[in-house]
Write a structure and sequence with these properties.
The protein is mainly beta and about 625 residues long. The protein is built from six helices and 45 strands.
C-alpha cells in the first residue's frame, strides 16, 4: 500500500489536499490514490477539541475548534458562522410565509438540551402568543459535535389542541453568505458556474419580473439571473451550495434524511442562489401543498436534522463540491442520527421499521418495461388525497435496484399507502394498508403493477413518461430567464410534428403557450401528423395526455377537422407557475381524450392540440408524454 504520510487531511472537511510544494505530485498520484482515500464521516469529522458553549447574554457561542457559531437567543438565528478564519454568513434564520403574513421566531427561550465536551444541542423555542400569524410553537435546535465541520440544525413545529385553527405555506431556513466570499455556485450537472459579483448586481438591469435581472457586467454579462434558475428536487441533488477557487472553501446544505419534506421525491424548490443557500421544508413553490391545522387538532412535526457544512480543499471549488457530494453519502449512512435522543418525533433506528419487496411492472403494450429504477414510497395522504399534496405527514421514498428490489428503511411505525411509479409508464401503482412496526421488517414479496391502458395498441407516442418535459426542446436550458419570449422566433404557428420523422428533442417544445408576436396574441396550434395502415371498425381511440405542468391551461383537441374540437381538456391539476419560475415540471396529472374511430382514416391523419390566446403570461401546459391508443 502506498505511503500516505505526505497527505494532509483537514479533519473538519474530510478533503484530501497536499501541501502547496507537492501539488504537482498529488495531481499525478490522484488516480492511484483514489481507492485508498478515507470515506467522509458524518458531520465532516469526529476528532478535535472539546465543544464549548458560552452564554453571553443576548447571544450564545458554540465552538469546537473548527467552526464557531454565534446564536441570537431571542430570534433563534445565527449571527456568525466562522470557519478557517472566514466569516461564512451574514445571517442564518428561519422564516414562515411572505408578504403581510411573513414572520420569524421571536422571544425564544434558551435551553441546553445537551452540553458535553462531545456535543452541544441548543434549543431556542418561540412559543405562540398571538404575536405570529402562524399559530404554532417553533423550537429551533442547533447542534455542534466534536470534530464536525459544520452545524446540524433541526426544528420542531407544535400545535397543541388548545391553539386556534391555522395554516401556512412557506417554511424555510435561509443562509445568507458573506459577499463575494464564494464565487461559484453548485446545484447539479447542468447548473454550476461562476456567479456575478456583488458589484455586478448593482449595475444589473431590472426586468418586468421582479426576481429576474439582466446582468450588464462581469462573467455573466448579457445573461439573466434569477433565484429560480437553480430550482431542483432535493432528492436528486442531496446537497447544494457555493465554493471558491480563491479561498479554497465551500459552504453547503447537506441532507442525510428526506422524510420531513412534503409532496414526494419529484418536488423541487429553491436551494442555492446568488449569495444564499435556502432549504424549503414546506417547498411552497411549483404548486405545493400547505399546512392546515384545525382548532382542537394536536399536531407536531420535526424538520431535519440537516447539516450546514463547511469544507476546504487546496484543489479549489470543484473539489469542495465533490467532497460535499461524498458528505451526502456519509450523512445518509448515519440516518437516523444516534445522537438525537429522547424525542418521540425522531425515534431511533430500533424504534423504526422497514418495508421491502420486489417491484414488477407488467405492461401488455410495453413488454420490455420492468420495475428497475422505480420510485417506491410510503406516505399517509389524507382521505381522497395523494402523496403529491401532503405536508402534514412524513414520506419515505427510495429507488428500486436493477431487478426491482427495494427496501424502504427507517420508517416511523404506522399504516401507510405504498405508491410506485417508473419512467416509461403512465400513472402509478398504489397499495393501501401497509403496516410498519417498530423494529420490524414488512416483507411484501412480489409487488406487481398491471399498467392499465385504454386501448389494445399504441399507434404512436411522443416523449417518455417520466413526469417531466426534460426530453423536449429546451429540456436542458429551461432555467434561463425569458426563454418563453423567444417561442415565436423559434417556432412556426402551427407547429408541425410528424410521427416517425420528427425528433422530440428538437421538434417538440417543452411548453405550449399562447403564440405571442409583439402585441399580437394568437392561439398556438400543435399539429401531430401520423399514418394508420388501418382503422378499427368500431369503438374509441384514446389520446393520452400525461401532463408535467399546467397553469391556466385549456387544450382544444381536433381530429382531422380543425373547425370543431373533439374535446376541450382542462387539466385537473393546475398551478405552480413552472414556466415563469423556470421549471421543467410542477405537478403531474393524466387526461384521456376519447376519439371515435369514425373520425380517423386509413392513411394520413392529423390531431391538433391548440392552446388558446390569453394575455396571462404564465399560462401554459408542459406535456410529459402523448400517445394514441387504438381500440
Amino acid at each position: 500500500m502506498p505511503d500516505l504520510n505526505f497527505m494532509e487531511r483537514t479533519p473538519a472537511a474530510g478533503v484530501l489536499h497536499p501541501p502547496p510544494m507537492r501539488a504537482l505530485l498529488f495531481l499525478l498520484l490522484v488516480p492511484l490514490l483514489t481507492s485508498f482515500a478515507a470515506a467522509n464521516e458524518p458531520g465532516g469529522g469526529s476528532t478535535g477539541p472539546d465543544v464549548t458553549l458560552k452564554d453571553q447574554g443576548d447571544t450564545l457561542v458554540m465552538d469546537n475548534g473548527i467552526v464557531t457559531v454565534t446564536l441570537n437567543k431571542a430570534r433563534a438565528s445565527v449571527e456568525s458562522l466562522r470557519y478557517q478564519g472566514h466569516e461564512m454568513s451574514t445571517a442564518i434564520y428561519y422564516s414562515m410565509d411572505g408578504g403581510t403574513t411573513y414572520s420569524n421566531p421571536s422571544g425564544c427561550v434558551y435551553t441546553a438540551k445537551v452540553a458535553t465536551p462531545d456535543m452541544a444541542d441548543i434549543s431556542l423555542k418561540s412559543v405562540w402568543n398571538n404575536n405570529r400569524h402562524q399559530d404554532v410553537d417553533i423550537d429551533c435546535h442547533y447542534v455542534l459535535r466534536r470534530g464536525a465541520s459544520g452545524v446540524y440544525c433541526y426544528a420542531i413545529l407544535d400545535h397543541p389542541a388548545s391553539y386556534p385553527d391555522t395554516g401556512f405555506g412557506e417554511w424555510r431556513m435561509v443562509w445568507k453568505l458573506s459577499n463575494d466570499l464564494l464565487e461559484k455556485i453548485y446545484v447539479d450537472n447542468l447548473r454550476h458556474w461562476q456567479m456575478p459579483s456583488s458589484a455586478d448586481y448593482t449595475t444589473a438591469q431590472h426586468m418586468g419580473i421582479k426576481e429576474i435581472v439582466k446582468l450588464t457586467t462581469g462573467v455573466r454579462a448579457g445573461m439573466y439571473d434569477c433565484k429560480y434558475d437553480f430550482s431542483a428536487s432535493y432528492y436528486d441533488i442531496g446537497c447544494w451550495g457555493h465554493a471558491s477557487d480563491r479561498n479554497h472553501i465551500g459552504g453547503w446544505i447537506v441532507l442525510g434524511g428526506y422524510d420531513f419534506f412534503n409532496d414526494g421525491p419529484l418536488k423541487q424548490d429553491l436551494n442555492a442562489a446568488s449569495g444564499i443557500n435556502h432549504i424549503h421544508f414546506g417547498m411552497d413553490h411549483y404548486n405545493a401543498s400547505s399546512y392546515h391545522i384545525a382548532a382542537g387538532q394536536k399536531w407536531s412535526k420535526i424538520f431535519g436534522p440537516y447539516l450546514l457544512y463547511c469544507n476546504h480543499s487546496d484543489l479549489g471549488a470543484d473539489a469542495c463540491w465533490a467532497d460535499a457530494k461524498q458528505q451526502v453519502i456519509a450523512e445518509k449512512s448515519a440516518w437516523p442520527y444516534a445522537w438525537l435522543t429522547d424525542n418521540p418525533l425522531y425515534p431511533p433506528a430500533a424504534g423504526r421499521g422497514s418495508v421491502s419487496g420486489r417491484f414488477n411492472v407488467h405492461d401488455p403494450l410495453k413488454p420490455a418495461l420492468t420495475g428497475s429504477n422505480a420510485w417506491i414510497g410510503l406516505a399517509q395522504p389524507p382521505a381522497g388525497g395523494n402523496w403529491q399534496f401532503d405536508s402534514m405527514h412524513y414520506e419515505y421514498w427510495v429507488k428500486s435496484d436493477g431487478a426491482g428490489n427495494f427496501t424502504i428503511p427507517n420508517v416511523r411505525p404506522g399504516t401507510y399507502t405504498l405508491s410506485a411509479f417508473t419512467s416509461g409508464a403512465v400513472g402509478e401503482y398504489t397499495q393501501t394498508g401497509v403496516t410498519v412496526g417498530a423494529g420490524a421488517q414488512d416483507k411484501l414479496g412480489s409487488v406487481t403493477w398491471d399498467v392499465p391502458h385504454k386501448g389494445s395498441k399504441i399507434a404512436w407516442e411522443i416523449g417518455v413518461p417520466d413526469r417531466t418535459a426534460a426530453e423536449f426542446r429546451h429540456g436542458t436550458d429551461f432555467f434561463h430567464g425569458y426563454v418563453w419570449q423567444n417561442f415565436s422566433n423559434e417556432w412556426p404557428n402551427p407547429l408541425d410534428y410528424t410521427i416517425g420523422k420528427s425528433n422530440p428533442a428538437t421538434d417538440w417544445n417543452y411548453a405550449q403557450t399562447s403564440y405571442v408576436q409583439g402585441a399580437k396574441i394568437s392561439p398556438w396550434k400543435w399539429r401531430i401528423h401520423f399514418a394508420l395502415a388501418s382503422v378499427p371498425a368500431s369503438g374509441d381511440a384514446t389520446l393520452t395526455l400525461a401532463i408535467a405542468s399546467a397553469q391556466r391551461a385549456r387544450i382544444d383537441v381536433y381530429a382531422n377537422d380543425e373547425s370543431k374540437p373533439v374535446a376541450t381538456v382542462v387539466p385537473t391539476v393546475q398551478g405552480g407557475n413552472a414556466l415563469l419560475r423556470e421549471g421543467i415540471h410542477a405537478k403531474y396529472c393524466v387526461e384521456y381524450v376519447p376519439i371515435p374511430v369514425g373520425m380517423l382514416k386509413t392513411g394520413e391523419n392529423l390531431i391538433t392540440l391548440e392552446f388558446p390566446a390569453t394575455r396571462s403570461p404564465d399560462a401554459h401546459v408542459m406535456y410529459d408524454y402523448v400517445n394514441l391508443e387504438l381500440p
